[in-house]
Design goal:
The complex is a heterodimer of chains A (249) and B (155). The mean pLDDT of chain A is 96. Chain A is built from 10 helices and no strands. Chain A has 249 residues and is mostly helical. Helices cover 66% and strands 0% of the residues of chain A. Chain B has 2 domains: 90 residues, Fe-S cluster assembly (FSCA) (GMP Synthetase, Chain A, domain 3, 2-Layer Sandwich), CATH 3.30.300.130; 46 residues, no CATH class. Helix content of chain B is 24%, strand content 24%. In chain B, the strands form 3 sheets. A 4-stranded mixed β-sheet of chain B has the order 6-9-8-7. In chain B, strands 3-4-5 form a 3-stranded mixed β-sheet. In chain B, 33% of the residues are buried. The N terminus of chain B is likely disordered. The chains are: A mainly alpha (249), B alpha/beta (155). Chains A and B meet through helix 2 and helix 6 of A and loops of B. The complex binds zinc ion. The site of zinc ion has 8 residues of chain B, from loops.
């Protein structure tokens, strides 16, 4: 059960942290339309995080609900991939981060809908439909910016170069992944790498972007070893319920 | 209160649950949208109302759940149970004909193969923004009458 809890937290925390990142952009997007889109994507991700974390709470069996898990854990207890905790940066970085995540998530959910764990399959089924729209949007922006003006191209290239080292972790298996995959509950992360890379190549081709060559890949998010960026994010997200005991919406 | 064999008949409960509206698009009911999946007496005898969320982060979902719970209490069912069912995932294909008609009359193009302008009926329209004022809607502009309109996007 411990492995399954860890596994579910990875999906829940990744959705939660990315949702929090995106909601910080509300009223800061370059155009109104994007403001609404970012808010909508963020909302979907908060919803997905809630479904995952509610299940995590049940698996844990320690009477912690999704709110408690979201607001009363420290960074070391978070299991999100490092990619999603990267700061928003400029719009190119926000876009690249979203695209890398959305594409990975679309492949991951396509696997998880076949999970032997019905609850995981159901959350994946729900998330998958929403994620398809997120991917459509983020991919569209990668192409528009990459194949746009000289400046947007330069920024998009810099953003994908910058974030590339956080994509390796998505395809790295540890004991939890292996146990879940062999039990028919999860999937082998490495199996997603080829389809992910193929689509990135196609998109980058259309966007006139170079595939980054960065042999060094960061890792550790799934095991709770995070960058300091997560600490700042959590401080802001958790301050209210942590300052005022028992505060609820 | 209509009762059958001392219990509320499932059919009568369905009828009054049809008064529960989507708080964001109050012209359509939870039956119209296909959010109300089932009404049944569970094996423990408790009345269960099965709902499914449209989008997982849709803020209307909580309000709808509360409205259903209130409706149950107002009709004398104190121990009703609202169950959120994720699978099969909600799809706009579950929106019924009456719901589509109501959306149209309200000025929202219902989900179809193509977004049809609710004002002039033209199917020639372009997407202005895929994400609209609520998660379920996209913003379109009619090429015929040039008016912008909300399209309940296929999902
Ligand atoms: Zn028109």
């Amino acid at each position: 059960m411990r492995a399954r809890l860890e596994y579910v937290l990875r999906f829940g925390d990744s959705a939660l942290v990315l949702a929090q990142r995106l909601c910080a952009l509300v009223a800061h997007a370059p155009v109104m339309e994007e403001d609404v889109a970012l808010a909508n994507v963020s909302l979907d991700l908060f919803g997905q995080a809630r479904l995952w974390l509610a299940y995590a709470g049940e698996l844990e069996g320690a009477a912690r609900d999704e709110d408690t898990l979201a607001f009363h854990r420290d960074a070391g207890a978070f299991r999100n991939v490092l990619l999603v905790e990267r700061p928003n940066g400029d719009f190119a970085e926000t876009t690249a981060r979203g695209y890398f995540y959305d594409l990975w998530a679309s492949l991951a959910f396509a696997e998880l809908v076949r999970s032997k764990d019905e609850r995981i399959a159901a959350v994946a089924e729900k998330s998958r439909k929403e994620n398809a729209y997120h991917l459509r949007r983020s991919e569209d922006w990668v192409v528009r910016l990459g194949d746009g003006t000289e400046e947007s191209h330069a920024r998009m290239q810099r953003a994908v170069n910058e974030l590339w080292r956080y994509t390796g972790e998505l395809f790295l298996a540890d004991d939890v992944d292996t146990a879940m995959a062999s039990g028919g509950i999860g999937f082998a992360p490495a199996a997603l790498r080829e389809p992910w890379l193929e689509r990135v190549k196609t998109t980058f081709g259309a966007a006139a972007l170079e595939l980054p060559v960065d042999p060094w890949m960061q890792r550790g998010g799934k095991q709770g070893v995070h960058t300091e960026a997560l600490g700042y994010l959590l401080a802001e997200m958790q301050i209210l319920p942590r300052t005022i005991a028992g505060a609820v919406w | 209160m209509v009762t059958v064999g001392g219990r509320n008949s499932v059919e009568s409960i369905r009828v009054w649950l049809d008064d529960v509206r989507d708080p964001e698009i109050p012209v359509v009911s939870i039956t119209d949208l296909g959010i109300l999946r089932d009404v049944r007496h569970a094996s423990d005898g408790v009345l269960e109302v099965i709902l499914t969320p449209t989008y997982s982060g849709c803020p209307a979902t909580e309000t709808i759940r509360e409205d259903v719970e209130r409706a149950l209490r107002e009709h004398g069912i104190e121990n009703g149970r609202v169950v959120m069912q994720l699978s099969p995932a909600w799809t706009t294909a579950w929106i019924n004909e009456r719901g589509r008609e109501r959306l149209r009359a309200f000025g929202i193009a219902p989900p179809e193969d193509a977004a049809r302008c609710p004002r002039c009926g033209s199917v020639s329209a372009r997407e202005l923004a895929h994400f609209g004022s609520t998660p379920c809607k996209a913003l379109y502009r009619c090429n015929q009458c040039d008016e912008p309109f909300d399209y309940f996007k296929r999902f």
